[in-house]
Amino acid sequence: MAVDIAREIEILVRAKYPILYLVSWEERRVEQAIQTVAKSLNRTLHTWTITQGAKPPISRAGIAKPTTLSPELEILAQIYDAPEGTIFLLRDFHPYMKDFRVIRLLRDLAIRIRSKTQTLILTGPVLTLPSDLEKDICVLDFPLPDAEDIGEFVDSVIASVKSDPKVDVQMTPLEREKLVKAAQGLTLDEIESTFARSLVEFRTLKPDAVVREKRQIIRKSGLLEYYEPDAELRDVGGMELLKEWLEKRTESFTDRAKEFGIPSPKGILLLGVQGCGKSLTAKAVAAQWNLPLLRLDVGRIFDGSLVGLTEKNMRSAIATAESIAPCILWMDELEKGFGGLKGSGDSGTTSRTFATFLTWMSEKTAPVFLVATANDVSQLPPEMLRKGRFDEIFFVDLPGLAEREEIFRIHLTKRKRDTKKFKLKALAEATDGFSGAEIEQVVVGGLYLAFAESRELAQKDLIAEAKNVVPLSVMMSEDIAELREWASLRTRPASKNND
Ligand SMILES: Nc1ncnc2c1ncn2[C@@H]1O[C@H](COP(=O)(O)OP(=O)(O)OP(=O)(O)O)[C@@H](O)[C@H]1O
Ligand SMILES: [Mg+2]
Question: How many domains does one find in the chain?
């Protein structure tokens, strides 16, 4: 990958793209890649930071005029007069790109540089591109180190500590592979610190220690969360058709499936009534397929108030997920993020971020399986529901009679009760219109009743509790009817009709 990105930069430089913007936290790797390009094209590389100025200094073709410009304007002015055969790398320039003078100078430079053998490269951890500059600047995402890059790094670390008697870094090829896999999704700097920590703490390079650290780092990013799947498919009552679909694909991310010619499944959208097990199923898929589960906070993608930040958020979440692939990316309550798109004429930001997401969905090749959930279809933009985005859109309806029986069985068993002591069918009949969450509530409520009277849970507690609960479906019957009608034409049912 390191080679690929250097190649891509080289192509853009040779094609005379005047200004590039590389989004990355990894200054060292970015600079290395650009150095490679500069060397192969025989160009002089000048790097600049606000604290250190240009290195080496830029000699100006024109007469050096003493200036009173601020440093960020000064460097652009210097580039304007600089000789040919050069590449300029400006680090962390984004804070200055709000200044109208900087914007104007960059636009002037874009025109001037186009006819010269010069390239201006901006780099920084975030992308905040004013819309005035969108057409003049080409944005590139600098990818995280891939397995090969990490492998090389592992080897160099092993070589450097091999003679140290205090540590043991002997490793079988399989252990090395495990370590590399554990480090995927981190920047090289992060990998370096996790390795250092593992060496100090355990006197060896331990994949578990790296994974632990990775969780921390992903948590810090705020958008993605490593989720421990706490449910399996057998904890989900009903939804036979959906479960069948998922079970059939259990092995589809293995090498064996790939060799057989099976494409990785893209993802599913679970649409439906509240409390009927959509989120539960998302977690169960990860357990069933034995893949890491990453939860993406849809609402927070749109937290960024600056233009470009939300788009960057989206891209960085996607990059992290891809670097951990194969994995499950869980986007819960989709309408919370993309809901604003319909109706009110939102700024371009939301729709651009949405476009980034759609493009990724239709073009993605990395084995990231998307499980999205939503309650309210009317809020979702129609493009999202078009064929080919998701493998399937499943409609999760209120559980039928037999399903309610199963859900009672699951929740009673979970609380260590012998289900033979209950008439499950009668319970199911007493809970017509209840969601899975409400059935769980009945079981918990029944436990409270029995506990208060210091006796074991009995059938009558559950029946009494069921009479107490007014299911949401009664209050929302119109909404549900509408959703059903919509879904009957466009989605596949998660359950066989068993009512
Ligand atoms: N089909 C089911 N089988 C077993 N338990 C269920 C089922 N449906 C719901 N539950 C119970 O209810 C809880 C809440 O369900 P869940 O959060 O999955 O619903 P949801 O469809 O995501 O609802 P929402 O639309 O409100 O997000 C689950 O954790 C589980 O304990
Ligand atoms: Mg949910």
Answer: 4
State the closest ligand 1 atom to the C-alpha of 410, by its place in the atom list counted from 1. 4
In the block, tokens 């209050």 appear at: 475
Q: Identify each DSSP E strand in 183-266 by its residue range.
A: 224-227
Residue closest by Cα to atom 11 of ligand 1: 437
At 389, which CATH number?
A: 3.40.50.300
- Helix, strand, or coil here: 187? coil
- 378 and 437 share one domain: no
Q: Residue 435 C-alpha to ligand 1 middle, in angstroms?
A: 8
Would 344 be classed as within a structural domain? yes
**What's the pLDDT tens digit per position in 119-144?**
999 998 877 788 888 888 998 878 78
Q: How many angstroms separate the alpha carbon of residue 374 from the centre of ligand 2?
A: 8
What's the confidence (pLDDT) of residue 344?
45
Q: Whole-number mean pLDDT of the chain?
A: 87
Q: Which numbered ligand comes closest to the C-alpha of 398?
A: 1
User: What is the domain range of residue 250?
Assistant: 227-396
- Tell me, yes or no, whether 190 lies in a domain: yes
Residue ranges of alpha helices (H) inside 222-342 are 240-248, 255-260, 278-289, 298-301, 309-324, 335-338
Cross-strand partners of 320:
none
Specify whether 110 is located in the same domain as 123: yes
Which ligand is nearest the CA of 375, by number? Answer: 1
Nearest CA to ligand 1 atom 1: 237
pLDDT, tens digit (0-9, with 9 covering 90-100), for 325-342: 788 999 988 887 776 655
Judge if the beta carbon of residue 274 lies within 6 A of ligand 1: yes
pTM to 2 decimal places: 0.70
End residue of a domain, out of 175, 197, 221: 221
Contact of 491 with 450, CB cutoff 8 Å = no
Residue with CA at minimum distance from ligand 1 atom 13: 437
409 lines ligand 1 (CB under 6 A): no
